[in-house]
Structures are given as structure tokens and as C-alpha cells.
Amino acid sequence: MIGGLFGSLAFLNPWALTALLALPVVYILLRITPPVPKTVAFPAVRLLDGLEPKEHTPSHTPWWILLLRLLMAALLLLALARPVLNPSQSAGTNGPLLLMIDNGWGAAQNWGDIQSAAISEIEQAGRQKQNITILTSAPEADTKAPQVYGPVTVSDALSFVRALKPYPWPAALGALRGILPDLSDAHVLWLSDGLEKPGQPALIRALAAQSKNGKVIFHVPAQGSLPLSLKSPEKFHSQPSIMIDGPHNLEPNAPVRVQLLSAQGKILDDKLVETDGQSFPVSVSFDLPQAQRNQASAFRITGQNTAAAHYFMDASGGPKTVAIIAPEEAAQASQLTEDSFYLIKALEPYTTLLQGPLGEIIDQDPSMIVLPDIGVLPPETLNGLSAWVEAGGLLLRFAGPTMTTQARGQDTLVPTPLRSEARNVKSSLSWDKPLAATPIAPDSPLYGLDADEDLRVSGQILPEFSSDLEDKTWMQLEDGTPLITAAQRGGGLIVMVHTTASPEWSNLPLSGFYVQLLKHLLKFSGHSGALSLDQSGMLQPVQMLDGFGSLQSPAAHVLPIDAADFEKQTPMPQHPPGFYGRGGLQKALNLGDHLPPLRASLGGDGMVLKTYDRAFEKDLAPLLLSAAFVLFLLDALIMLFLSSAKWPRLSFKGKTVAVLILLAFSAPARAQIPQESQDLTLAYVRTGNVSIDALSEKGLKVLAVALNMRTSAEPKHVRGVSLETDTLVFYPLLYWPISAAQEPPGAEALQNLQAYLDHGGSILVDTRDGQKSSPALRKVLSGLNIPPLSPLPEDHVLNKTFYLLKSYPGRYEGAPLWVEGQSAGGRDGVSSVILGSHDWVGAWAELNIVTRGGQQYLSGMTPRHEQSLRFGVNLVMYALTGNYKADQVHVPHILERLGRGSPARNGRSHP
Amino acid sequence: MRLLPLRSEAERAAAQIPDLRALAVKTAFHVLHGANPRKRPGAGEAFWQFREYQPGDMPCAIDWRQSAKGDRIFIRQKEQHNAQSCLFWTKRNADMNFKSDTCRFDKKHVAGVLALTLALLHSRGGEMIGFAGTQRPGHSEKTLSSFEHILMRTDPCALPRSISIPRHAHFYALSDFLEPIANIRAALKPLAECTRNGWMVVILDPAELALPYEGRIHFEDMAGERRVMIDNARDIREAYQTRMEAHLQDLQALAAGWGWKFIVHSSDRLLEETVLQIWLENAQ
Fold this sequence. Notes:
The complex is a heterodimer. By secondary structure, chain A is an alpha/beta fold.
């Protein structure tokens, strides 16, 4: 082996180097070989006939060609000798290869090293023509046992190793002991993730017994790159906090950076934790303001790629806002007897609390509205609240003394009709003791919460008995009376707790169950439409973690987990870590919570410890062969030049081609691509009048929302353009509101506009006054070169590009719409100017855009607005598709829509 | 540049001959006037002699003035003048396209310019010029320009074949004369019998004279038919030059045998020198 600057070099076929002795012979041969003769045209050839030169020694090959050829020969011979950079230590070991690869959760941290080590070992075994057997450590998803693969040849082993991935669950070495192959005198390697696993010493002994020298070569990563894990903190913190766990038998010396992420993956906070002087596990907590705390959903250790380095909190979809309606001012809310106090205290850590009059609260659309002990509401409040609930809101009501004394029969916002009196066992005349609650039934949506054993309810408002009371009961007391009932109302849910929110009638608010109950109920919020009150208690898999900690949709083999067993479930192939749940309620199964304390593998009997080194064997033969080939090509090129007596002159064509090739390789300057060219943008011409511009903008935005909802043309932006300065070419449609007070456009603007129209732009000119003709129009359009306009005929394609229209009202109706005459050739008959006076943007701007759940909707729609929107949609489709709908192929379908189709066509659907 | 038309080059070359007018005056007026007195009675213009009328002579030739002086009847006889013709022949096949690296022009171009220069000079001197075998000799500008066209054409014949020229006309043969001597003799013999005023102008490229090549070379002729492979061109240089000398001497002997004149023009040599040399020898 030859040591060198870049690592050591070894030759696998050293005897081939003896062929280098032949190089001088090659040199002599090349020297005496005469060079290729030139050809010369010479008329006096006859006189040369028969002339023999006296000495036949040919002229010599130039020395640099000799050098080139010698170099080529030398490279070829070197390549034959198979040089290898950085050969592994055990070059020359015989015996079949038994490779144990760790692919449990910890292997994801150094997976690159593990794979490269495996590949180089396999390639080396292949060079020695040995068989390879591969064992993995983590159980497979389908067989629930680790894999034993082999004995196989090199190519199969390589493809197997390349396809291997780490799994997000712990290894199962015990299962491996029974299925070990029986080899002897094998070369045994264990590529481990560095952590000790249960059953590891026994397995090592078993493997060492099969190895050649009784030792297993055990690769571990360097101490700084051992895997760490995150687990839930032992104590409850009001701030988001987490515990970092690492190998307990090592002194931690490197700082660890932990990040707190929101549900969208945004980093809310990160902290660098110094671990010097501490021992694992180390606790970290993040100090955040309220609003950000609610967004916290996951923790992550940076620099670690394993599944255990990600910790997810139970997901309930978005920040929660809760409004508590108190009957009086909030000044008394701090009193210990007040319901609101307990509610505020319980809800504050997780939610944002809203205050204010009910109307405003409803506008803000909270996740849940809580009505603690309110009997009668003013009618308009009641209506507003009912409307909100029916639209998909969650209403939580608590019972109380006020509820009993107020008038009955008016209160319809309860899940079931209630009795007038409350049952109170606290009075001295009752014989009953305060009631405890029964455990929550599996079919209740509250299944999974453990009711406190000390829960005692002494006061309760009972519901009237009805046939569906069973279905509506979510939690019962020991005598069968319901404590919590709920019913769907329209799109929303009303939940009623039949006791007070303060400790007046029960000790519910004093228990941890209260907090859990409120938290759990919040998960039902924002759930308009079908509320899946799944009758079984199984939590379905929603998202799974893969070995590297990224979330993916669950594979086929993943099974649901019973809600009661969720806390105790260890991640395994059928239940990988991830999110399980249904609807708005998702519980997170985190790997770190279920791992034993981590320990690093520090050697033992039968083990030879090695760390992964980055430098692996590199075969140089292909490199040398390709270098020899390049030299060969060079030599051929030179011979080509030398065989002609003069330099081959490149013809003009050749020079042009060479210059073009050179130009092609120069990096082209990329023009700045404006955003408008990427997305569809609606544009209006800025008139300079602020109110008109604002109106145009709003109107076009409304049109954009309508287009997004109804058609496949989805404008992303609305932009005001100036005719003089902006490039108009990006906008398919331009809206131009013209008023009498406007100046006619300048020369440059007219030029731009003309170019725009000539190249296929469409412009909607709107005089916004409802008149049939207007002098302002003449002034403004006089400078433009457009064909004569005529009123829109009934069968014009503009009437049928999307909707079938008969009228195009804006704020005004009835005035004619002008388009270019039918004889307009050029653009396939598509009119570039459409002239009207209906003030469409005025009509469109009267609608409002409402954002709900990430989607935009329009509110305030009337039939006239609908018609004007339809015209707008038709217009945009016309500008984008031109004459498409005028094609005869659409006629039968259009006729059908108009109700005049033949009976034979009734079964057909639209194109 | 090789793109100058032959004519302008030839004109330039012709104008360079400083002694033209002096020579012309010196060679007496019949050169300028183009008439060659034959010193015998014939159909010329100048008076030669009076002769007594004999039956058979034309009555209109009687000179009555002279006859009136005596009793016998005399006829006025004029001198026989032959307008001199100069005929040219150049070799115009592929061989003449050869041009070595040191020369600006190929042999065909050189031959053409040389021929045209001589033709111009003769024509100014009043003689009729033409391309042998192809063109009727004439004086006019039209003759000259068609002469130029013929010079530029390609003709695969290496040697003049079945050409007739007027007796005692001037004849110029411009070629590289690389064919075997026997062939050249056979081709030019009929012409040599017609006239003794012949010129053999050998036009060769300096590379053909010196063979400046080195190394292993395949020599092939311009048509690509014959090929000779020479291992070491430098070595055979002397032998080749000897052969070329011998060949040129043979040609000179051949020319001298017929009374023709001989000159070798190397195509890198100044055209004017050769023209002057030829002209001077013509004048003697």
C-alpha cells in the first residue's frame, strides 16, 4: 500500500504493474513507426517516378505525440492493475459476509454512514467472490419480525441495501435470535446506531460464535452524533415544555437546539440548551406570549433526523377562541363564586378569550361560546345565537340557579327540554348523598377522558324524559341521570352540562377533569356539517411518521388504536408514531414517550468497536480508463490535423456554427419575470380619481372571487395599470371606466393601447352613466384605430361563453352593448373592444367578500347582482377563450340547455 | 489579388515595357503599320515596279500616265504585303491549376496573362492575333476579348492537336511541357513545319523546379490518377532537380532544332521581365 496525500492507495492486481516495464519498448516502437504520410498534388509526378531516396529513415513522430501515446499506454496499464483509494483494513479477508444492519428509529440519525459502510463492505465481499447475508434489526410491517436476507450475491445485496430505510419504531432483537442463519467462519459486521438495545449482548454472543475469529466488528457513530429523543415533561408546565433524553452512560457535552413549531411548520421559538454538567434527561421550556402559545403544536431537535426527535402535541386544528357570555359586567368575574372565573381559569392556557357584546362576538366567529348559567336571553341575542349555532357553531351551556328561576318554554337553545326545578341534594332535608359519575361509556364522544373518582354532583337540572335522551347523553351520574348532554342543531352542536360552572352545585370545576373536559369539547368546534360521533372508541390513523420524522399518510398496514389503550400503546409496525383520531380530535402517539432510557453501546464481549469513517474505498480503475479514452480521442484529433498538409481551414459555415455553439453555452440573462405573467390577473385602468379606482378594484376583486368559485379561470390578482407606463401585455382583459371629466389619453398611452389591442388584448370600456352615447367616449376613443362598432347581436358568442345570457345589467340596465362588427377579421372574429355604459363594477362592488375557513365567498347577492356577475364571468371567459363557444359542436348542447333539445338527447350530459 | 481580370493585368504588364515605342520606331515603320514588305510583286499598297503589259493582265491595272510617256503599255505593280499573324496556344488542363504555397497565381493564370500581354503588344503593333486552332486572327477589340475568354477556358488536351496556322506566322506555345519529349515533338512538329517563328514558353511553378517538400509524401497528379509514394522527399530533391534540368535541356534542344526560341518562366518571376526578353528577341 502506498501512503499518499489523499489517503492510501492499494493495487488489487499488482502483477499488472510489471507490464509497465514494457513502456520503453512501446516508446521505441512508436518512434520507429513512420508517421502518416501527407498527400500533395503535383503535376510533375512523371518525373518523380522511380526516384528512390537513399536513406529510408523516416522523419520522426513529434515528441509530444510520443508522450501522449506513452501516457495513454501507462494509464491503461495502471487501470489494469486496479488501484483502489483508501482500501478497508480487512482487504484480503475471506469468508462469507454476515452483515447486521440496524434500521430501528435510531439508525435514521446516521443512515448515510450506515448505508455507505454497508455498500462498501458488500462491494469488497463481492470482489472476493463471497456470499452475503444481511440481517436487519427492526420488525417489518407485514411480518412483525426483522428481515433475514441471504445468502445472496453482490448485486442483489446492493439493491437490497439501497432500498433499506430506517423505521420509526424500536428494534426487536429478541425475535432475531431464533431465525439466525447458520454460517461458520464468516466475517461478521454490525452496523449499529450507537444505542444499546434489549437483547443485544445475547445476539452479539450468537453472532460472534459464527464469526471467523470469535469477534463481531461493531460500528458505532461518533459520540457527537448519537441519536437523542424528546419526551413529555414529567411535571405540568403552563408554558410549552419538553424533555430531551440522550444516552445516560455518556457525559453530554454538546449543546442541543430545540425548536417549537406551529401546525403549519413555522418556527415559533428555538432554544439552545447547554448540556454541560447536566445529565440526561434535560428539561426545556419555552416562554411565549399567549397567542403564540396556542399555535404551538410540535417540538423538534435540530440536527437530528429520527422519529424520536419530533414530538407532536395533540392536534385540534387551529387556534381556539372562546367567548364566555356573562349576564353582568365582567367586573365581578374574579370572584371565586362566579362561574366565569372558573371558566376563564380553565380555558385561559389553551385559548384566546373573547369579550364583548354578543353581536360582535358572533362576528368574530369563535370556536365555542359558553353560556354559564343564563336563563333567558333577549330575543335578538337568542336569534343571533341560534343562527350562529345552526351555521356550525359550538355552544356550551352550564346549568345553575338562574336557569331555574327564569321563565321556561322560551329557551330553545338546549339539547333536550329541561325540567323546571333543579335537584339539590345538599339541603338538609334530603336523604341522598352527592352523586358520583359513572365511567364514560365507549360510545360517548367523551370516551378517553377519565372522570375523577372524587367527582360529586349535588345539584343538577334534570332534563325531561324523552325517547332520544339516551342518544344525547354523553356522561351519566351513578343513578342514570345525565350530567352532560348534547345535540346537533343544524350544522352546529349544543352541549349542556347539567350542573354549574362554579363549585356551587358540584366539585366539577375543582377537578382536573373540568379542564380536560373543556379542552376536549373544544376539539369539536369548527366542525360544521357532519359531526362524526363515531360509535366505536377506535382512533383511526390520520398521519404517520416515517423513519426520518416526516409526516405521511398512513400505509395500508397501520391499524387503529383503541382510545382507552392509547396512553399505553408502544409504537410498533401496526401502530407507528403519528396522529390518530377522528375529525377535529387527533391524538399524537410520540415515540419518545415509550422508549426506555437511552444508553450508548460502549463495547463488551465479542465486540470490536469501530466508528464510521467517512472515507471509503474508491476504485480508481474507471477514472484511469476514462482518462486514457480522452487521450485517445485527443490523439485521433491531432492525427486528423497532421495528415493534411496545411491546417484545415474552417469554412464560413463552420465558423458560424462554432460561434453559435459558443454562444449557446454562455449563460443567458434571465429577464425579470413579473408576477402577472405567471398568474391570471384582472386589470383596470387607473383614472386618477381615487374613488373610481377603489370601486374598480373592489368590483374586480368580487369578480375574481366569483370566477374562482365557479370557473376554472382563477385570477390571482387584481391590478390597476397606467396606460402610459405599464406593460399591458400580461393582462387578458382591461377594464376602463371613462368619465366626462377625464382627459383623453396621451400619445404614448394611445400607442400602448393600440399595441395591446393589435396583439390580442380585450378592453371593456364603461362610461358608467347608463346613457346610450356619450361625448366622453368620442373624446377618449378618437385616437384609437378600431373597426366600427355595432350593437351586440343576440347570437353573439359573448352571450354563451359560460352562462346563457339575455341581458347584462350593471347598476344600469337596458343600454346597448357595443362590440366590433362581425366583419372584423384579424383575431378570429373576437372583438377587442366592448363598450357599455352599465357600470358593472358599481354593481359588483356592492357585494361583499367573506372569508370563511380559508375560502372566499360572496355575500349580499341579489338576482340583479347575479346577472351582472354572470356577465362578468362571460366576459372574462370570452377574453380568454375567444370564439371557442361559437363552434358548431357546442350548438346541440346549448340548445339542450335552452330546453329545445330533441328527446333522444335527454340522457346526455354536457361536454 | 487573383481576381483581377487577365486583361487589366496584361495591360499593366504591357504598359510596363518602356522600350515599346523605341523598339517600334527602331524596327522601322512596317512594324507600326503592320505591313510586312515581301520584296516581290503582290497585292499590297506600296509601289513596287512598272511592268510591261502582257496578255492576261487586268486592264484596270494599266498605269496610263507611265504608258503615255512612251509607246509601250505598263502595268503598275504593288508590293506583296502579308499582314502578320500571331497565334497563341496555351495548355489549359488540370495540370496548369497547380499552385504552390509561395506563389500567388497558378500556372494557368500566368500563362494567360503572358499570352494576353504578348497579344496586346502584337496587336498594337498592327498584327493580327488569335488563338491557334480556335480563333480567326484579327485586329479588333472583339478579337482580343474573345481571346481572353478562350484563355480562361479549360481544355483537357495537354498538347496542341490538329491545329493549322498560316505559314510563317508567329506562334507562341505556352505550357509547362511536362509531357514526355516524344509526345511534345510529335504534337509540335506539324506546327514547326509551318513556321520558324515559334516560341516555346515553359511556365513552371517554383515548387516544380525546386521540390521543396519534406518527409513522407504521396505525390499524385492533378487528376488524381498517378501516385508516387516518396519516403523522404528531402533526399530525392537533388535527383529530381537533375531530372528537371535534363528535361528542360531536351526541350531547348528540340526548340533549337526547329529554329524556334525557348524560354523558361517561373511563375514567381516578374511577368514583365519575360515579356521584355521575348520582345527583344523578337526584334532581333
